[in-house]
Design brief:
The protein has 180 residues and is of the alpha/beta class. It has a single domain, classed as Alpha-Beta Barrel (Aconitase, domain 4), CATH 3.20.19.10. Helix content is 36%, strand content 17%. It contains 8 helices and 7 strands. Strands 4-3-2-1-5-6-7 form a 7-stranded mixed β-sheet. α3 links the parallel β2 and β3. α3 packs across α4. The longest helix has 12 residues. The radius of gyration is 18 Å and the shape is globular. The protein starts with 5 loop residues before the first strand and ends with a helix.
Length: 180
């Protein structure tokens, strides 16, 4: 995965609670096994409505309501968001599995108190750009919490395979010393 440090962009406001993974990427698009090509199907059913929020906004930071990414476990949801162009999501809360899947793809889910997310939404609606900075652990100037291990993995672009490959020499030495 690519490393994440900082993104500055207009915020895209999706002021809806309980946006589930079935709406993020509907089931009929889950047949692909590669991680790319899902962006065009993001919020597929909602995008048919000409008044749908994302039809009128562009940016790399999604500002969402509480419990974003709830519902069924599908890693395709963060793939679709990332393929569409989002690099970070800021919301008051997330579905646990969605949050973990997002982190594994390099999509940063920032959790802030609801009143701070609302302020960022207001600022985005006024046209202000927002910065999400992982090194400083701030989103729109508000501090957010993230554990050091996850932060280091995102900063270094290290997914689970890359973490394992950092120990490739030790693994090879162990394998050589323990023939089957």
């Amino acid at each position: 995965m690519k490393s994440f440090r900082k993104v500055t962009s207009r915020g895209v406001v999706l002021d809806r609670p309980d946006v589930d993974t079935d709406q993020i990427i509907p089931k009929q698009f889950l047949k692909r096994i590669e991680r790319s090509g899902f962006g065009e199907f993001l919020f597929f059913d909602w995008r048919k409505d000409p008044d749908f929020e994302l039809n009128h906004q562009e940016g790399k930071i999604l500002l969402a309501g509480r419990n974003f990414g709830c519902g069924s476990s599908r890693e395709h949801a963060p793939w679709a968001l990332e393929d569409y162009g989002f690099e970070a999501i800021v919301a008051p809360s997330y579905g646990d599995i969605f949050r973990q899947n997002a982190l594994k793809t390099g999509l940063l889910p920032v959790q802030l108190p609801e009143h701070q997310v609302r302020e960022l939404m207001d600022r985005a609606r006024a046209g202000e750009e927002i910065t999400v900075d992982l090194e400083e652990k701030t989103a729109g100037g508000f501090p957010f919490a993230i554990d050091d291990f996850t932060r280091d993995c995102l900063l270094g672009g290290l997914d689970e395979i890359a973490l394992t490959l950092r120990d490739e020499a030790a693994i090879a030495a162990y394998e050589a010393a323990h023939p089957s």
